[in-house]
Design a protein that fits this description.
Blueprint (H helix, E strand, L loop, with lengths): L14 E4 L5 H11 L3 E6 L13 E2 L2 E2 H6 L4 E4 L5 H11 L4 E4 L5 H4 L4 H7 L4 E6 L14 H8 L1 H4 L15 H22 L5 E6 H10 L4 H4 L18 E3 L2 E5 L6 H8 L12 H6 L1 H15 L4 H10 L4 E3 L10 H5 L3 E6 L3 E6 L23 H7 L4 H9 L5
Parallel strand pairs: 1-2, 1-6, 2-5, 6-7, 7-8
Antiparallel strand pairs: 3-4, 9-10, 10-11, 12-13
Helix pairs in contact: 1-8, 6-9, 8-9, 11-14
Length: 401
């Protein structure tokens, strides 16, 4: 990949102006780029997006930045200068989408809020991604991922029944959840615009995104307010991995046929009537726990390959625990070409998983490599009609990086 690829996919023809930093907004825009949108990323002169410097780095650029900014064009403009603001509004006249993820009021104070863009482009879809939303007592709180994991329930959801200590997911799960909702919301707004609704301001709070995501399956007693509370809110909270003689795996006996299949795979008696249906098992949880203990005890004596073969023979849902380092070499991942490797001029070899959605008619694909800081400033401003002398003058004045 030498830079942004030619437009393709279901969002071909859609243009995005991306002011966002870190992960939430950038990842949403990267997914749109994979689906064919052209994305211009606005970065701070001399420093750029803070994500460039977070985590594992090669050549001064992080894995996080590569993952969340693939296929974009980077321009470095000082948004705090009137000239810089006017240049960005000029670009905004012709874009379909603007994305930002600053605290409420920040973009308005520099003259780049929704109303500013709407004046020059009434049909723009402007997405504001915040921690807690634009109003309320927490609106102006700092909203790093762990803060939202704490407020939104992720940390409480991950703790063990026997240990009250909250546990944070070892990934920026709140950021990524919000990014997925944001990409869907922006494309929904574009669809509405195609049907005559015009442009609009899309506001998405990370706390809302996390609550929506979590409550689907992990807040049973909170959804059903008249429940008796005898079951845990998360119906998968009792699942735990199987320790094998040479590794780890999981079996998920949810359907009625799955539970006896799991038992047979490990030579554990499955004929007791208390095990036959989900209703039977719900009514006899202590006995089911004893049976599961027997399964876990046998599993520790069996090699992973043999256990998986037995479970698959019995058609019990199962899987091997793989690390991110293991997955690219997994036979299935290799067979479906799940990963792509390209050379980056700063960072050398870079590997990404393919875009997850496979479109039958308008295929998505990885949009290209991540840009170097300000790599496309001259190119983009040239498209606005600025000549080389004018660009050099603005750079000397500190407006451009």
């Amino acid at each position: 990949m030498t830079g942004p690829r030619a437009p393709h996919g279901p969002l071909r023809g859609v243009s995005v102006l991306d002011f966002s930093i870190a992960l939430t907004g950038p990842y949403a825009a990267a997914l749109m780029a994979d689906q064919g949108a052209t994305v211009i990323k606005v970065e701070r002169p001399g420093f750029g997006d803070v994500a460039r410097y977070v985590g594992v780095m090669v050549g001064g650029c992080s894995a996080l930045y590569h993952s969340c900014n693939r296929g974009k064009r980077s321009i470095t403009v000082d948004v705090h200068t009137p000239v810089g603001r006017d240049l960005l509004l000029q670009i905004g006249r012709d874009v379909d989408v603007v994305i930002e993820n600053y605290r409420p009021g920040v973009m308005e104070r520099v003259g780049l809020g929704y109303d500013d863009f709407r004046r020059v482009n009434p049909d723009v879809v402007y997405a504001s991604l915040t921690g807690f939303g634009p109003v309320g007592p927490y609106a102006h709180k700092g909203a790093y991922d762990t803060v939202i994991q704490a407020y939104g329930g992720f940390a409480a959801n991950q703790r063990d029944a026997a240990d009250p200590e909250p546990r944070f997911l070892k990934q920026t799960a709140a950021d990524k959840t919000t990014a997925l909702y944001a990409a869907q919301a922006v494309t929904a707004a574009l669809f509405a615009r195609e049907r005559g609704a015009g442009g609009q301001h899309v506001q998405l709070a990370m706390l809302d995104a996390v609550a929506s995501f979590l409550w689907a399956d992990a807040a049973g007693n909170e959804v059903l307010m008249d429940a008796d509370g005898t079951l845990p809110s998360s119906f998968v909270s009792s699942f735990r991995p199987l320790r094998f003689a040479d590794g780890w795996g999981i079996v998920t006996p949810t359907a009625d046929k799955d539970f006896p299949a799991m038992c047979r795979a490990f030579g554990v008696d499955d004929t007791d009537p208390r095990l036959q249906t989900i209703m039977d098992r719900n009514a006899n949880r202590e006995f089911v726990a004893e049976v599961m203990d027997a399964v876990y005890a046998v599993a520790e004596t069996v090699r992973v390959a043999d256990a998986m073969a037995a479970l698959e023979r019995e058609q019990a849902p199962c899987g091997v625990v793989l690390s991110p380092a293991d997955l690219p070499e997994d036979p299935h991942a290799r067979a479906v070409a799940m990963f792509e490797i390209h050379e980056h001029p700063q960072s050398g070899r870079v590997r990404h998983p393919r875009h997850p959605a496979q479109f039958g008619v308008t295929p998505a694909r990885l949009a290209g490599r991540a840009p170097m800081l300000g790599e496309h400033t001259d190119e983009v401003l040239g498209e606005l009609g600025l000549d080389a002398d004018r660009i050099a003058t603005l750079r000397a004045a500190g407006v451009l990086g």
